[in-house]
Write a structure and sequence with these properties.
CATH class of the largest domain: Alpha Beta
Distance between the termini: 79 Å
Helix content: 40-55%
Strand order of the largest sheet: 1-11-10-9-12-13
Largest sheet: 6 strands, parallel
Strand content: 15-25%
Shape: globular
CATH topology of the largest domain: Rossmann fold
CATH architecture of the largest domain: 3-Layer(aba) Sandwich
Radius of gyration: 25 Å
CATH superfamily of the largest domain: Nitrogenase molybdenum iron protein domain
Length: 441
C-alpha cells in the first residue's frame, strides 16, 4: 500500500509521473464514453421520459418506470419526519454556515466609473433555474445537496426553481428496488426544494437540459458525478448553462513537516481514500515524517469499514512524494493542482501565498478536510484531475451572470463619435458608424 517515490531519483520520478498521469486521465472525456453519452442525450431529447426510463432500466433497475421519476412532495415530508432530531440539528447548522459564507462571498453591483463621458457599471443577476446532481453511488452524499443548492439560493435563485436529481441504488438480482436515501429526501424538504427526481447518470443531465414529460428543464446544471455525468454536462453546455467544472473522484494533497500531528494527517488521507476511488498524495522532505504517517495509516486502516476500497485506492491511485525541501514541495502541490490541499506544516500562513492551484486549502493539521466536506461554509464541489489549474469550485459566483452597463447621459463628444465611426468603418461596418453619427447634437 501507499508507494513512496523519491522524485529526485529517476526511478522515483517515473513512479510519481505514472500516478499523476492516472490522475489526469480521470478528465479524459472521449472515446467510447463520449459515444455512449451522445446516444443517451439524443434519446432523451427526442423521446423524453421514454428515453430516461430506457437507461434507468439498463443501468439501475430493470423494472424502473416513468411513474418513479418524480418524487412526490409527501415522500419528501415523510422522509424528513423520520429523521433523527440530532441529525436535523446538524444539517441545519451546516445549511446556516454555508448560507452565511456564500452570502458573504456574493458580489454586489459595482459602482459606476466615468470614462470619456460614459458611465460604466456592472450588475450581477442570478440564473432563473438550477438543477443539482446529487450522486447516489457507494455513499449517501446528502451533503452535496447542501453544497450545490445553498450557494444557488445565496446567489438569489428562487428555491422553487431549484431541482434535484439523484439516482436510487442499483438493483441487484431479484432484490426489492431501493430508493433515494431518506437523508437526501429529508434535506430537500428542509431546504424547501420540491422538484426532486429519482434519476441519475447522463440521462438525468439530459432530462434537466431538454426537459421531459416529468422533468422541468433548467437554465443551469451543477454538481459532481462520474465520467458519464461530467461528459454529459460538457455536451449540453450551450443548450443550458453548467458549472464548467470537472468534479470527479475525490483527491487530497498533504504537505507535512516534522511538526505535523501524524494521527490527524493519516486520518485525512484515509478519509479521502474511502471515497472509492480516492486519490491521496503525501508530500514531505523528511523520510522519517513519511514513514511515521504511512505507519499510522496502516494502524488506522483496520478500524475503517471500507478497508478494501481504501487499501486499493492508496496502492493504485496514491503515493507519498519525497522531495528535497519546502520549495520543491510547493512546486509539486501546484503541479498536482488538487481538489483538497492540507498544509500540515509549521509555517502554513507564510506558504499560503505561494499556492497557486488548489480547489480548497486547509491550513494546519487541526483543520480536517471533512470540515469542508460537511460544515465550514465553502462548497465541497471542487475541481479534480488537476483542473484546479484553471477552474474553481462551486460558489454563489457560479449562479450569477455579469452584465455591463453603459450610459452617455449627456451624449457623446465629437471626438468620441469620430473615433467610434472610424473604428467601425475600418472593419467595413458603415451601419455601426452611422448609428453613432446620427446622435450628433
Amino acid at each position: 500500500m501507499f508507494p513512496v517515490f523519491d522524485v529526485n531519483t529517476a526511478q522515483g520520478k517515473a513512479g510519481y509521473d505514472a500516478v499523476l498521469k492516472r490522475l489526469k486521465g480521470t478528465t479524459n472525456l472521449s472515446g467510447d464514453a463520449a459515444k455512449a453519452v451522445i446516444e443517451v442525450l439524443a434519446d432523451v431529447e427526442h423521446h423524453g421520459d421514454t428515453g430516461v426510463v430506457k437507461y434507468m432500466q439498463k443501468w439501475t433497475d430493470p423494472n424502473f418506470d416513468a411513474a418513479r421519476i418524480k418524487v412526490a412532495e409527501s415522500e419528501l415530508e415523510a422522509a424528513y419526519n423520520t429523521m433523527d432530531s440530532e441529525i436535523k440539528a446538524a444539517l441545519q447548522a451546516s445549511i446556516n454556515h454555508v448560507m452565511a459564507y456564500q452570502k458573504h462571498c456574493c458580489p454586489k453591483d459595482l459602482d459606476t466609473i466615468e470614462i470619456d463621458g460614459a458611465e460604466l457599471g456592472m450588475r450581477f443577476t442570478p440564473v432563473d433555474s438550477v438543477g443539482c446532481y446529487v450522486p447516489g453511488g457507494m455513499a449517501v452524499l446528502f451533503s452535496t445537496l447542501i453544497m450545490t443548492a445553498v450557494p444557488a439560493m445565496a446567489a438569489g435563485v428562487p428555491v422553487e426553481n431549484i431541482s434535484v436529481v439523484s439516482p436510487p441504488p442499483t438493483r441487484i438480482g431479484d432484490e426489492e428496488a431501493g430508493d433515494i436515501s431518506p437523508l437526501v429526501l429529508g434535506t430537500c424538504w428542509m431546504l424547501g426544494i420540491k422538484q426532486v427526481y429519482r434519476i441519475g447518470g447522463a440521462q438525468a443531465i439530459a432530462a434537466l437540459a431538454y426537459g421531459t414529460e416529468s422533468v422541468d428543464k433548467v437554465e443551469m446544471i451543477v454538481g459532481p458525478g462520474n465520467m458519464y455525468v461530467q461528459l454529459a454536462k460538457a455536451m449540453v453546455n450551450g443548450v443550458t448553462g453548467t458549472d464548467n467544472g470537472f468534479y470527479g473522484p475525490s483527491e487530497i494533497v498533504t504537505i507535512a513537516d516534522d511538526t505535523a500531528r501524524v494521527a490527524c494527517v493519516a486520518a485525512d488521507l484515509i478519509a479521502q481514500a474511502e471515497h472509492n476511488p480516492g486519490k491521496c498524495f503525501l508530500v514531505a522532505w523528511d523520510q522519517k515524517v513519511i514513514d511515521k504517517i504511512v505507519a499510522e495509516v496502516k494502524a488506522q486502516l483496520s478500524k475503517r469499514k471500507r478497508v478494501e476500497a481504501i487499501d486499493r485506492a492508496l496502492e493504485t491511485e496514491s503515493c507519498a512524494v519525497l522531495v528535497k525541501d519546502l520549495d520543491q514541495a510547493i512546486g509539486y502541490a501546484n503541479e498536482i493542482a488538487c481538489e483538497h490541499l492540507n498544509l500540515a506544516i509549521s509555517n502554513a500562513d507564510s506558504v499560503l501565498p505561494r499556492i497557486r492551484h488548489a480547489g480548497e486549502i486547509f491550513i494546519g493539521d487541526q483543520t480536517p478536510v471533512a470540515a469542508g466536506d460537511y460544515y465550514a461554509g465553502p462548497s465541497h464541489t471542487l475541481p479534480t484531475g488537476t483542473t484546479a489549474r484553471f477552474s474553481s469550485g462551486i460558489s454563489s459566483f457560479t449562479f450569477l451572470k455579469r452584465t455591463g452597463t453603459v450610459c452617455y447621459k449627456n451624449g457623446m463628444s465629437e471626438q468620441t463619435i469620430k473615433n467610434i465611426a472610424m473604428l467601425a468603418e475600418a472593419e467595413g461596418l458603415d451601419g455601426h458608424a452611422d448609428s453613432v453619427r446620427v446622435r450628433r447634437g
